[in-house]
Design a protein that fits this description.
With 159 residues, the chain is of the alpha+beta class. It has one domain. Helix content is 39%, strand content 21%. The protein contains 6 helices and 9 strands. The strands form 3 sheets. Strands 1-6-7-8-9 form a 5-stranded mixed beta sheet, sandwiched between helices. A two-stranded antiparallel ribbon has the order 2-3. It has a two-stranded antiparallel ribbon with strand order 4-5. Strand 7, helix 5 and strand 8 form a beta-alpha-beta unit. Helix 2 packs across helix 4. The protein is globular and about 45 Å long.
Length: 159
């Protein structure tokens, strides 16, 4: 578990690398412990919640789902308000904006989600997260139930 002091001493690249490791480990736990969510075609919010639980071991920071606040104001980007699927951050303190994750379960890739990630990562932007993750989870019920396996590893795209 990384402390706030350790995180403050890291570069953005080091923070991103630490978050990547946490996401990979979290996804592995998700597939091991919660395959049933995928087998029954659960909504992405249920899947993201379980992943967020596994990400909490990442650090002493907050891991929030659907968190829509920037301090006390609603989070927003150029074209409207947003609620990222998962954040690793410290509420009320932008120095610890580590990771933002957008997920899709079984659906086609979302251009809107990718635009949200880009806005959350802008160097000169308001949020400046170290890592953006787009997670596509294939949750085709019949195939998962028949084989007991997800067809492929969740597709992770790092931004």
């Amino acid at each position: 578990m990384l402390s706030e002091a350790q995180l403050l001493g890291m570069t953005m690249e080091q923070r991103a690398d630490a978050a990547k490791i946490a996401v990979w480990r979290g996804c592995k736990k998700l597939l091991k412990r919660d395959l049933l969510l995928l087998a029954i075609g659960a909504h992405e919010q249920a899947i993201c919640h379980r992943l967020a639980v596994y990400l909490e071991t990442f650090s002493a920071l907050n891991v929030d789902c659907e968190y829509n606040r920037q301090r006390v104001h609603p989070k927003s980007i150029r074209d409207g308000r947003i609620k990222p699927d998962i954040l690793i951050h410290k509420r009320m303190d932008n120095r610890f904006n580590i990771m933002v994750l957008e997920a899709k379960a079984g659906a086609a890739t979302s251009l809107r989600d990718k635009q949200k990630l880009e806005a959350m990562l802008e160097i000169r932007g308001m949020y400046r997260y170290a890592l953006g993750v787009y997670l596509h989870v294939e949750n085709q019920r019949k195939r998962v139930l028949e084989t007991g396996k997800v067809p492929a590893k969740p597709a992770l795209a790092w931004h």
